[in-house]
Design brief:
Elements (H helix, E strand, L loop, with lengths): L1 H8 L6 H9 L1 E6 L4 E3 L7 E15 L5 E8 L3 E2 L2 H6 L6 E14 H10 L2 H26 L2 H11 L9 H8 L3 H13 L1
Antiparallel strand pairs: 1-6, 2-6, 3-4, 3-5, 3-6
Helix pairs in contact: 7-8
């Protein structure tokens, strides 16, 4: 459990009693690859912290095409933020890509923790702000960068994921088809 406490300690300080209270409101679970933790169309009730393994959030459009929204590896949080915050049905799936150990924090327990440890509101505000900044940056990248530039940026941001992820998921994340991605990589290797 030290990984999640280390994650929190990057932004706020908890006493040992507060750490125990925080941990008492979470559930740690081992999950197998291909497990769906959140379904589109359902209200998201949990946030997930990754102790080990790899998760992704994605959407499936009307043409049955997957669009990867985010990945979460060790030390990262993942959730359907829209649904978790609004408590309205979301449009993201959250899937375990490789066997993982996750820490689950329910929305209900998170709200309770805000009352019992008010500084946790600051921690989760910082996470939400960082998420907003990352999403805005990604949107701007998708509007202004070429596919090659988006791929190069992905490689710099997630160097450990390049070998772990199927090419089609990387292609989806950067917003191109697997066929285009394959041709693009071949062109890039020739340079």
């Amino acid at each position: 459990m030290s990984l999640i406490l280390d994650n929190i300690a990057k932004h706020i300080s908890l006493t040992s009693e507060e750490e125990k209270l925080f941990l008492s409101k979470t559930e740690t679970r081992k999950v197998k690859a291909k497990t769906i933790l959140q379904n589109a169309g359902k209200i998201c009730k949990d946030g997930y912290f990754v102790n080990s393994g790899l998760l992704r959030s994605f959407n499936i459009n009307d043409n049955i095409v997957e669009h990867v929204m985010s990945f979460a590896c060790e030390g990262w949080w993942i959730s359907d933020m829209y649904s978790l915050l609004s408590q309205k049905p979301g449009n993201l799936f959250i899937e375990v890509l490789e066997d993982a150990e996750i820490v689950i924090l329910s929305k209900e327990n998170q709200e309770q923790l805000y009352l019992e440890i008010p500084k946790l509101e600051r921690f989760f505000r910082i996470l939400t702000e960082n998420s907003l900044v990352a999403n805005q940056e990604r949107l701007m990248d998708n509007l202004s960068l070429t596919a090659e530039e988006r791929y190069e940026k992905f490689c710099k941001k997630y160097p450990t994921l390049i070998q772990k992820l199927p090419q089609k998921q990387i292609a989806s994340y950067i917003g191109v088809t697997p066929e285009f991605f394959s041709k693009m990589k071949a062109r890039m290797l020739k340079k």
